[in-house]
């Protein structure tokens, strides 16, 4: 599963994750393919989200070149 290939998708995901972090002061997390983090998970996810900002920009720029609707005229 991945983000929808639109320029907005990375930022929509980022904003959703920011809201999760704001609303939920979790301490532990279990992540697919990454294992379990016991203690300090909220701070780690917050830091990861900040470090990922250049990646969101890169994915957005790449997705601008795509045509997810399938229209030939784009």
Any overview of this molecule?
It is a single chain. The protein has 74 residues and is mainly α. It has one domain (9-64). The protein is built from three helices and two strands; from the N terminus they run αββαα. It has helices at 9-23, 41-51, 53-64, and strands spanning 29-31, 35-37. A two-stranded antiparallel sheet has the order 1-2. β1 and β2 form a beta hairpin. α1 packs antiparallel against α3. It starts with 8 loop residues before the first helix and ends in a 10-residue tail after the last helix.
Sheet with most strands: strand arrangement? 1-2
Helix-strand category: mainly alpha
How many individual domains? 1
**Total helical segments:** 3
- Number of beta strands: 2
Radius of gyration, taken over Cα atoms and rounded to an integer in Å = 15 Å
**Straight-line distance between termini:** 24 Å
Helix content: 40-55%
**Low-confidence region ranges:** none
Mean pLDDT: 89
Largest sheet descriptor? 2 strands, antiparallel
Strand content: 5-15%
Q: Choose one word for the global shape.
A: elongated
Order of helices and strands: HEEHH
Quick summary of this structure?
The chain is mainly alpha-helical and 74 residues long. It is built from three helices and two strands, in the order αββαα.
Short key terms for the protein model shown above:
elongated, mainly alpha, 74 residues, 3 helices, 51% helix, 2 strands, 8% strand
Topology (SSEs and partners):
Layout: H1 9-23, E1 29-31, E2 35-37, H2 41-51, H3 53-64
Antiparallel strand pairs: 1-2
């Amino acid at each position: 599963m991945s983000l929808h290939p639109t320029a907005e998708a990375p930022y929509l995901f980022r904003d959703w994750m920011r809201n999760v972090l704001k609303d939920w002061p979790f301490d532990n997390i279990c992540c697919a393919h990454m294992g379990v983090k016991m203690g300090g998970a909220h701070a780690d996810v917050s830091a990861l989200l900040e470090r990922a900002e250049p990646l969101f920009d890169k994915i957005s720029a790449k997705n601008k070149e795509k045509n997810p609707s399938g229209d030939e005229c784009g």
